[in-house]
Amino acid sequence: MSPDAAADQRGAGPLAGIRILEVGTMLAGPYATMMLADLGAEVIKIEPLGGEISRQVSDTYFASLNRGKRSTRLDLTARDGREALGELVEGAHALLVNLKPSAIHRLGLTYASLREFNERIVCVAITGFGLTGGDDPAFDYVVQAATGVAAMTGDPDTPPTLPGYSSADNSTGLTAALGLLAQVISGRGGQIDVSLRDVMLSQLNYHASAYLDDGVEPVRRPRGAHSFYVPAQMFPTAEGHLALFITHDAFWKSFAGEAGIDGFWQMAERAANRDEVIAVVGEALAHDTAANWQTRLRKWGVPAAAVRSLPEALDATPEAVVDVGTRRAVGCPIRVDGYVPDYAPAPVLGEMNASAG
């Protein structure tokens, strides 16, 4: 590319010129394509005649997952809807779907069905347990329960618990977007199969390997304590809670000096004397507030943070919040030099049908 051409592209998103079709519902699929739209891709959201189901949750919910897209209504069970889908596929780089496997096959939303329209189309299927894994319900919380995540979360003397947000759906959306881009870059069409179950098992990486290789089962520890690092968990303070994460001896030396603690200088020693270390650290932290400890430890580079509510976190990071039409939202977490996303509002249902008419 010539210098002049490069200059012309400086303000364009890295995915400018890429067209992606989405038959997505609720969170995982729409989140994946919204991230791609933020990076400059053209995303066409294919909705049933009554609209994607998350429009019924709330306007805010739908808007938070569908900014920057266009909407077309198609009845994919009807002949004219399937013909219209074929026409869209002809000019697209990828199609991302999250539906039950039986619906994906029945509606012809696979590479095997669509390659006749475009040999290079990339078809990404997000499902609960894989395209051949059946139609068992696979909502986020169900998958967290089924993959061991819930059993690992919470204090040992409390029931299994779930995080306060949809970690499986969000993680699967990002993984699907990565798979989609990898295949588009290859220049080959094909089928990509991403399941919530496989993504969550993959994210248990070192826990899974500890069991598979060493027979070590994960256990829940008080206040979310890490299985390897000590101290690395939540601590109560004189006011508020502090997340402390000491991963190596240099961090411990700095922390111990600030907290007035002597001993336990080696990682192995801290791990072997977990209860004693936690008691000593807890006693020291009880003499000051979480906010003050954060300030005191940050100057030494020690990983520590006072627990904030979501409103407090958003108020503290105004640079992360963007205007999307008349709404506000958290912007794209991927910052590209020379490019600022055009945060357009979520589409009106069937806006492309109206303009075509």
Automatic annotation (TrEMBL):
One of its GO terms (molecular function) is CoA-transferase activity. It comes from the Bacteria. Coiled coil: none annotated. Pfam families: CoA_transf_3. InterPro entries: CoA-transferase_III_domain, CoA-Trfase_fam_III, CoA-Trfase_III_dom3_sf, CoA-Trfase_III_dom_1_sf. Keywords: Transferase. Its EC number is 2.8.3.19. This is Acetyl-CoA:oxalate CoA-transferase. The lineage of its organism: Bacteria, Bacillati, Actinomycetota, Actinomycetes, Mycobacteriales. The gene is uctC_5.
